[in-house]
Structures are given as C-alpha cells and as structure tokens.
Design goal:
GO cellular component, one term: cytoplasm
Structural class: alpha/beta
CATH superfamily of the domain at 99-428 and 491-501: Metal-dependent hydrolases
Number of helices: 14
Catalytic activity: (S)-allantoin + H2O = allantoate + H(+)
Strand content: 15-25%
Distance between the termini: 64 Å
Number of strands: 19
Subunit structure: Homotetramer.
Bound molecules: 1-[(4S)-2,5-dioxoimidazolidin-4-yl]urea, zinc ion
Shape: globular
CATH class of the domain at 99-428 and 491-501: Alpha Beta
Family: Belongs to the metallo-dependent hydrolases superfamily. Allantoinase family.
Pathway: Nitrogen metabolism; (S)-allantoin degradation; allantoate from (S)-allantoin: step 1/1
Length: 504
C-alpha cells in the first residue's frame, strides 16, 4: 500500500470512529461554555419523588436540554441512564423552581466593600436563588440615569453566578423629566424604585406624590412596575429632644421613632395616586408594588381594601419580619436594624396570616448589608447604625422553617418566592417548572437541619447577620441556572455565567 492510500484508510477509520462515538459525547458540553456548569452535559434528566410543578408535587423526571425544560414526565422511577442523556436521581429531595428575589442591594459598582456581584450572586446560588433583581441604590452612582444604568450592566458582566435584572431609580431629579425616564426604561430597567422617606444615601432623594404620579404615567406606557419604599416621616416629640446613647442603644427607642403611622401615611398616598395613571388614554393602569411591608395592622387593611376595589397594587414582606419580633431584640444588637422596623410578636403573627390568606403577594429578602463598621456594633447605637439586614442566602430555610410552624405548604412557599416575583419582574420564562421555561431549578432537602454559620457556610461579603447561629430546616443541594449547575453541596461553578436581564 502506498503512503497516500494508507493515509486515506487512516482518515476513513478516524471518521468511522468519530461517527460511532459522537452520539455518546453529543450531550457533553455542546453549547455550554467551559466552566459555567459543574455538570458537563447540556441534555440531562433530573428525577425525584417530589417535583413541584403547577399541577402539584409529584414524582417526576424533568428533562433539560440547551438550558430549557423540554419535558416533565410524571413517573414513579428515575429514567434509565442512556448514552444520549445523563440522569441525576435526587431521591426524596425537592425539585422546585429556582427562587427569584426582586429586592436585593448588591451595591456594585461603588460600594463593593458592602457587597458585590460575585459575593452576592454566589450567596444567592448557595441559597437556591436563580434570579435577583438589584436595587438602584446603594451603588455609586445610583442607577437613576441611562448612563448610570449602562455602567451597572457593564460592571455586572462576567461577575454573575445567577441571572440579575435591575430596577432603575426614581428620584426628584429625574421624576418630572419624561425623556430621562424613557431613556432609563429603554436602557433595560425592569421598572423603577423610589423612596418616600430619606433613603440613607445622599444621591437618592425621596419623592413626593407629584413625582410618583408623573412617573406612573410613563411606567404605564411600558407596563413596568413602580416599587416604593412606603414610609413617610410623621412629626414626633423625639425630634425636639436630644436622645442620649443609653437610650439610643434601646431597641424600643428605635421602634418608637418609626411607628406604623409612617407606613400608613405613605400607603394612603400611593393608593390615591394609583387611581388615575393611564397613559394617554390607554386602558392599562400603572402597577405600584409596595416593598417590605412591616405593619400588618392599618397599612395592610388599606392595601386589602384598595385591592378589593380594583387598584393595581401588590405587596411584599421579608423573612426578618416573619422570623423575628421586637421583644427578642437585645438592646445594642444593631444587626436587627432595618427600615421599616421589626415590630411586635402580634404584628408578626398577623403578617403570617396575611401571607397565608393571599393578601401579601410575595417574599423578598431586602438584602441590604453594609461594611461591618457602619453597623456600630460596639456602640450598639440603633439611631446611627446602618439600617439594613444581611440575609439573601437564608431566605428559603428561614421562611420554610417558620412557615411550617404557621401551616405554610411547599407550593405556597414556591408561589411566594418564585412564581409571583418572576411575574412582577416581567420574567415569563422563569418562576415555574413548565415545558419551555428556563431550567432555573433548586434541589433541596426540606428536612435537613442546618445551623447558620456553623455547618452552613455564609457566602455574603460579610458574615454579620441576625440569623447567625440559628437552627433551621432546609438545605440546598444543587442550583441550576438555565441548565447550568452553578452550585452543588458547597462548590460553585468556576466561571460566572449568569447574565444581566434587560427589559426589551
Ligand atoms: N438604602 C437601603 O438599602 N435601605 C434599606 N435598608 C433597610 O433596612 N430598609 C431599606 O430600605
Ligand atoms: Zn426600602
Ligand atoms: Zn431595600
């Protein structure tokens, strides 16, 4: 045989071998960026006895291909491993839609010493969150213009372990400038966020009813929501007197300075302005979303009444208002300082009731950490410490553990953490396990006991949190974002392949 014939035969054999072996490797890595996933497959099945679908919890196999859910098969046994499709049998663990947190402060660019895209999204992945929506403050600059928005999106690229969308900021400087608001929304902001009280950040001023009303008309045009920190300071005796440090250390002092009337007043105004917010004769009104409701008394009654009379209003509350009560907060323990404040135990129980009865639409973390020094832990000064609770990673075990004591079912929990928040953020391919959706999934063990910071690593930038040492139920085993296994049992994927989510 001459050498060219030999070469021909060798090539033919090589092609033959490749075509035999190709089906075996065809689900490996194709279309996946190296490092994005701890699992080297693009086509695979997840099986468990407890898969949470819109039809209920059932034994099922979820088929994932190219980042999407391509089929859900109700069956009592795991599918057989084949050459073409890898199978992971999770036994009795729960397979649920990944959680969507519409209220996080990742603080990048500008305040990465408080948190950041890498640390925040790694914590999210470890906590079963597959999508976060970042607040327009406390980054520098605040996200109140198209330029600042573009800077934030640029800063996020290549640094996200889960998908992240962004709210734009509504402040007095842009509220009456329709062009500026249009530009911010066209740049991809999923909606806007505003404060009706001082925000604690100098370049993020508070808005009044006129600012909000004007912005709502533009938001109605885009059909995107306005999220509002609903507290308006009310006159009080405290303003007139100097409060000394021994009193500033008392939690009761802080609670007195921020009574429920602050929430009530803001909510009354929001309900009033929500009435006439159609854009140029269109039939759709603007949507107002009240963030982090704490007061479960008059404020909640106002929201219920407004909803009953057809107002387009939704409301969230946060794990810290459901897990803690004022009675248990020690003087000086500023880890618990947040705004609005954590109120008494009766208030907490009414929040649980409202949540179960469907009057509160969703949960969010309001993860708002700062650098440790700003919490003034040594002085324990409640009036001067940074207000914000660090909690992103713990949302699932906290709300599940306390939720169980209040009769909350798994499907309700998932609606509150995934389905409804995804809808608020306009993410129709996320939040439920249905064919065609993004394969954003958390696999977790609701019965496993954990202790925050002990047998449970905290991935936030700083470990300071009022949950430190808490015994809870529920540990995340695996988190998938668009089919990428981004977290498994204490390990993260090596490359950050989450993407910025922009409104289109
Ligand atoms: N600026 C900021 O993050 N503030 C948040 N912290 C808090 O406790 N409530 C808030 O609105
Ligand atoms: Zn707020
Ligand atoms: Zn917040």
């Amino acid at each position: 045989m001459n050498s060219s014939l030999l070469l021909g035969v060798a090539i033919a054999i090589a092609i033959g071998c490749a075509s035999i072996l190709l089906p075996y490797f065809s689900d490996r890595n194709q279309g996946l960026n190296e490092g994005c996933s701890l699992l080297p497959h693009r086509h695979f099945w997840l099986y468990s006895k407890r898969v949470l679908t819109p039809g209920g919890i059932m034994p099922a196999a979820v088929e994932i291909n190219g980042g999407h859910i391509v089929s859900i098969v109700h069956q009592n046994k795991a599918p057989k491993q084949t050459k073409g499709a890898h199978v992971i049998d999770y036994g009795n663990a729960v397979i649920m839609p990944g959680l969507v947190d519409v209220h996080v402060h990742l603080n990048e660019p500008g305040r990465v010493e408080w948190e950041g895209f890498v640390t925040g999204t790694k914590a999210a992945a470890a906590g079963g969150f597959t999508t976060l929506i970042d607040m327009p403050l406390n980054s520098v600059p605040t996200t109140t213009s198209k330029e600042a928005f573009d800077m934030k999106v640029d800063a996020a690229k290549g640094r996200l372990f889960v998908d992240v969308g962004f709210w734009g900021g509504l402040v007095p400087e842009n509220a009456l400038n329709n062009t500026a608001i249009d530009e911010l929304l066209q740049a991809g902001a999923l909606g806007l966020k505003s404060f009706m009280c001082p925000s604690g950040i100098n370049d993020f001023g508070q808005t009044n009813a006129s600012h909000i009303k004007e912005a709502l008309r533009i938001l109605a045009k885009y059909q995107r929501p306005l999220l509002v920190h609903a507290e308006i300071p009310q006159p009080s005796e405290d303003e007139k007197t100097e409060i000394d440090i021994s009193e500033r250390r008392m939690y009761s002092t802080y609670l007195r300075t921020r009574p429920p009337s602050w929430e009530e007043e803001a909510i009354k105004i929001l309900i009033a302005v929500s009435k006439d917010t159609h854009f140029d004769g269109s039939k759709d009104r603007a949507h107002i979303h009240i963030v982090h409701l704490s007061d479960s008394s008059v404020s909640l009654d106002l929201i219920k009444e407004a909803k009953e009379s057809g107002a387009r209003i939704s409301v969230e509350t946060c794990p810290h208002y459901l897990a803690f009560s004022a009675e248990e907060i020690s003087d000086g323990d500023t880890r618990f300082k947040c705004a609005p404040p954590i109120r008494d135990v009766l208030n907490r129980e009414c929040l649980w009731k409202a949540l179960k009865d469907g009057h509160i639409d969703m949960l969010s973390s309001d993860h708002s950490p700062s650098s440790p020094e700003l919490k003034l832990l040594e002085a324990g000064d409640f009036l001067r410490a940074w207000g914000g609770i660090s909690s992103l990673q713990f949302g699932l075990p906290v709300t599940w553990s306390y939720g169980q004591q209040h009769g909350l079912q798994l499907d309700q929990l998932s609606e509150l953490w995934s389905q409804r928040p995804a809808k608020l953020a306009g993410q129709h391919k996320k939040g439920t396990i249905v064919t065609g959706n993004d394969a954003d999934i958390v696999v977790w063990d609701p019965e496993n006991e954990i202790q925050i910071g002990e047998n449970y690593t905290i991935y936030h930038k700083h470990p300071i949190t009022p949950y430190a040492g808490k015994h809870l139920f529920g540990s995340v085993i695996t988190t998938f974002v668009r089919g990428n296994m981004v977290y498994e049992n204490g390990s993260h994927a090596s490359t950050a392949c989450g993407v910025p989510i922009l409104a289109v």
